[in-house]
Amino acid sequence: MFKVLAKDGAAKYGRFETVHGTIETPVFMNVGTAGAIKGAVAAEDLKEIKTQVELSNTYHLHVRPGDKIVKQLGGLHRFMNWDKPILTDSGGFQVFSLAGLRKIKEEGVYFNSHVDGRKIFMGPEESMQIQSNLASTIAMAFDECPSSVASRDYIENSVARTARWLKRCRKEMNRLNGLEDTINKNQMLFGINQGGIYDDVRIEHAKAISDIDLDGYAIGGLAVGESHAEMYRIIEKVVPYLPGDKPVYLMGVGTPANILEAVERGVDFFDCVYPSRNGRHGHVYTNAGKLNLFNAKYETDDRPIEEGCQCPACKYHTRAYIRHLLKAKEMLGMRLCVLHNLYFYNTMMEEIREAIKAGRYSEYKNNKLEGFKENDKN
Length: 378
What we know:
The chain is α/β, with parallel strands linked by helices and about 375 residues long.
C-alpha cells in the first residue's frame, strides 16, 4: 500500500494506495473538522487548490449530525461530495482539548458534549464504530493525548492504556470491515505514538505499536505546549523505531517551517488548522513570509497576495480588495484568504516532493526558510 520511491537523507517521496485513490507523500491534509473547511470552502474548491486528503473529526461528527445519519446518507464521501481520501481523527484529541468536560477510565472516556452538555461515552470500540459509519479512508486509533507538562507517572500510565486501547481498536476494526452493511470494507487503521517529551517512553511505545499490523503510524501529543526544539528531538528519536515501509503522520503540525523540518526527519503526513484559521483572520502565507491584510499599508495595494500564485484569490483579486472585504466583514474575504493559504500549503508539498525526487531537499528547505524571513526584515 505504501511505496517509497525516492529518498534524500531521511526525507522520502512515496505513494500510498487507498480505496479512494493514490496519495503522494509528503502530504498536507486539509482540515474539515465537521465535514467542511472553515471559511466557506466546499469540496469542489478542494480539487482546485490541489487537496489530496481531507481530514474530519470523529467526535464532532458524532455530536452533529450524528455518525448514523452520515451512514444512512451513504458515508462521509457521499455526504460531502468528495471522492478522494478522507482521514478521520479518532476523537482522542478531544480527550486533551475538552479536559474540563471529560473523565478517563479504562473502558474509555466519558464526555459532556461541548454543544448541548449531553453525556457521551467513547472508547476504542465506539470510536471504530463511529469511524466505520463515517466510512473514511483512514481511521485513527483511539488514544489519550496527555498534556506536555503532565508528570512522568501520568504519561507512563496514559501510554500503557493507549497501547491497550490500540489492540482493542485493531480487533474491532477487523470485525467491522467484515460486516455486510459496512460501507468501506477496506478502511485503514493508523496507530498513534504518545509519551510526552520523554524519549525513552516514546521509543518503547513506538516499538510496541510497531508490533501490531497497522496501515500507518502517527506521532501524537506534539505541538501542545512543548518547544519546537523538543518537538524535533522527539521526531528524530521516534521515527527510526517505526516501520520503514509504512507512512508516518505527525498530528496537528504545523507551520510551514515545522513541516519543512519534519519532512527532513522522515515524516510523510501532516495536518493543521493554521492555514484556515489564520486565513479567517486575514493572515496569509507567502514565500516571503506571512502578511496581515488588515494592515493599512495594503489599503491601495493592487497586487495579488503573491505574484505568480495561481490560487482563486490571487488569479482574480488584489490585496486592496481582499482587505476591504475583511474590514467590511464580508465572508468572501475570509474565503479567499483560506483558499490562498491551503493552496500555498498544497503547492509547498508539491515542491517538497519534487525536491526530494531531485535529491536537493536540504537546499530547497534552507532557501524556503530564508525566504520566509523576508517580511521580517521589512
